[in-house]
Amino acid sequence: RALCPLVPAAPAALRALPPPVAVGVLHTTRQLHTTQQSLAPVPPLPEKGGEVRHGLIPEEFFQFLYPKTGVTGPYMLGTGLLLYLLSKEIYVVNHETAAAACILTVIIYGIKKFGPDVAAFADKLNEEKVASVQAVKDEAMQALQTAIEAEKKEQWRAEGRSYLFDAKRNNIAMLLEANYRERLLMVYNEVKKRLDYQVAMQNLRRQKEQDHMIQWVEKNVVQSITPQQQKESIAKCILDLKALSKSAHATL
Amino acid sequence: PPAVLLKDMKLMDVKLGQLGSWLAMRDFTPGGILGAVRRGYERYYNKYINVRKGGLGGISMVLAGYVVLSYAWSYSHIKHDRRRKYH
């Protein structure tokens, strides 16, 4: 309080009040949309309008007078009223009356002759309007229906996720296995290479020892052959050859 | 029958004797008059014009009303065409 001098200190009476209930309380008690009223669906238009007799007087008037005066009551009233207006000259017969009579005749003749056609034409226009809007509505419904089906299909597809995960797990297991075997093979190859090296070394050593020994033995033997022995061995060879040629001649 | 306040009753349900007091209770402010005109228009429109197969009566009643009203407004002018002076 001392740091913000602009905030006026609340009077002690206000501070003594309990804090407002709204603090920390959810407004769950307020209900929305309690009435059934809603703007859609709009009720359809009535088929026909209110009944009008002779194009001028609503039917309700005739029904209103029917209990007291029967069917001819309103007509009697109309006739009486007309005569009263004429006799008291509240309605004045002048040139406008003649004009009105001619105009009304033409109008009524036109209505009687062309009325149904015009009505049919207007109905057709209305039908087209309604049909186009209905088509839009049907298309929207269709699109929503297909969307619903697609959604259901997606939900069904989502059910197969266990298979998907199993396949993925299998894949990973296979990868691990392949990796493990690859490394195993590598280890085996490396070890074999080293062992082969050792074996080759041993073989080489033996080979070399063997060759060296043979060479040494040969050298010594050749050295030890004295000329005397050479002559004796050559003579023996010649004798052997002669004997062999004799036996070969004998077999021929 | 449930009791309805006089000012909420429809005109057809008002008895003749109560007519004066009923009229006095109506809302004659400009907003009230406008509301009454709008309500009347809506009633007429929804009954005779805003239908699937509207007939001739819808507009012909309006035109007839216009004819009668214009005759009434020009009566002081037409009075001079009367054939007799005393009726």
Automatic annotation (TrEMBL), chain A:
<keyword id="KW-0496">Mitochondrion</keyword>
<dbReference type="InterPro" id="IPR013837">
    <property type="entry name" value="ATP_synth_F0_suB"/>
</dbReference>
<dbReference type="InterPro" id="IPR008688">
    <property type="entry name" value="ATP_synth_Bsub_B/MI25"/>
</dbReference>
<dbReference type="GO" id="GO:0046933">
    <property type="term" value="F:proton-transporting ATP synthase activity, rotational mechanism"/>
</dbReference>
<comment type="function">
    <text>Subunit b, of the mitochondrial membrane ATP synthase complex (F(1)F(0) ATP synthase or Complex V) that produces ATP from ADP in the presence of a proton gradient across the membrane which is generated by electron transport complexes of the respiratory chain. ATP synthase complex consist of a soluble F(1) head domain - the catalytic core - and a membrane F(1) domain - the membrane proton channel. These two domains are linked by a central stalk rotating inside the F(1) region and a stationary peripheral stalk.</text>
</comment>
<keyword id="KW-0472">Membrane</keyword>
<keyword id="KW-0813">Transport</keyword>
<keyword id="KW-0406">Ion transport</keyword>
<dbReference type="GO" id="GO:0005743">
    <property type="term" value="C:mitochondrial inner membrane"/>
</dbReference>
<keyword id="KW-0999">Mitochondrion inner membrane</keyword>
<dbReference type="GO" id="GO:0045259">
    <property type="term" value="C:proton-transporting ATP synthase complex"/>
</dbReference>
<protein>
    <recommendedName>
        <fullName>ATP synthase subunit b</fullName>
    </recommendedName>
</protein>
<comment type="subunit">
    <text>F-type ATPases have 2 components, CF(1) - the catalytic core - and CF(0) - the membrane proton channel. CF(1) and CF(0) have multiple subunits.</text>
</comment>
<dbReference type="Pfam" id="PF05405">
    <property type="entry name" value="Mt_ATP-synt_B"/>
</dbReference>
<comment type="similarity">
    <text>Belongs to the eukaryotic ATPase B chain family.</text>
</comment>
<keyword id="KW-0375">Hydrogen ion transport</keyword>
<keyword id="KW-0138">CF(0)</keyword>
Automatic annotation (TrEMBL), chain B:
<feature type="transmembrane region" description="Helical">
    <location>
        <begin position="55"/>
        <end position="75"/>
    </location>
</feature>
<keyword id="KW-1133">Transmembrane helix</keyword>
<keyword id="KW-0496">Mitochondrion</keyword>
<keyword id="KW-0375">Hydrogen ion transport</keyword>
<dbReference type="GO" id="GO:0046933">
    <property type="term" value="F:proton-transporting ATP synthase activity, rotational mechanism"/>
</dbReference>
<keyword id="KW-0472">Membrane</keyword>
<keyword id="KW-0812">Transmembrane</keyword>
<dbReference type="InterPro" id="IPR019344">
    <property type="entry name" value="F1F0-ATPsyn_F_prd"/>
</dbReference>
<keyword id="KW-0066">ATP synthesis</keyword>
<dbReference type="Pfam" id="PF10206">
    <property type="entry name" value="WRW"/>
</dbReference>
<dbReference type="GO" id="GO:0045259">
    <property type="term" value="C:proton-transporting ATP synthase complex"/>
</dbReference>
<keyword id="KW-0999">Mitochondrion inner membrane</keyword>
<keyword id="KW-0406">Ion transport</keyword>
<dbReference type="GO" id="GO:0042776">
    <property type="term" value="P:proton motive force-driven mitochondrial ATP synthesis"/>
</dbReference>
<comment type="similarity">
    <text>Belongs to the ATPase F chain family.</text>
</comment>
<comment type="subunit">
    <text>Component of the ATP synthase complex composed at least of ATP5F1A/subunit alpha, ATP5F1B/subunit beta, ATP5MC1/subunit c (homooctomer), MT-ATP6/subunit a, MT-ATP8/subunit 8, ATP5ME/subunit e, ATP5MF/subunit f, ATP5MG/subunit g, ATP5MK/subunit k, ATP5MJ/subunit j, ATP5F1C/subunit gamma, ATP5F1D/subunit delta, ATP5F1E/subunit epsilon, ATP5PF/subunit F6, ATP5PB/subunit b, ATP5PD/subunit d, ATP5PO/subunit OSCP.</text>
</comment>
<keyword id="KW-0138">CF(0)</keyword>
<dbReference type="GO" id="GO:0005743">
    <property type="term" value="C:mitochondrial inner membrane"/>
</dbReference>
<keyword id="KW-0597">Phosphoprotein</keyword>
<comment type="function">
    <text>Subunit f, of the mitochondrial membrane ATP synthase complex (F(1)F(0) ATP synthase or Complex V) that produces ATP from ADP in the presence of a proton gradient across the membrane which is generated by electron transport complexes of the respiratory chain. ATP synthase complex consist of a soluble F(1) head domain - the catalytic core - and a membrane F(1) domain - the membrane proton channel. These two domains are linked by a central stalk rotating inside the F(1) region and a stationary peripheral stalk.</text>
</comment>
<protein>
    <recommendedName>
        <fullName>ATP synthase F(0) complex subunit f, mitochondrial</fullName>
    </recommendedName>
</protein>
<keyword id="KW-0813">Transport</keyword>
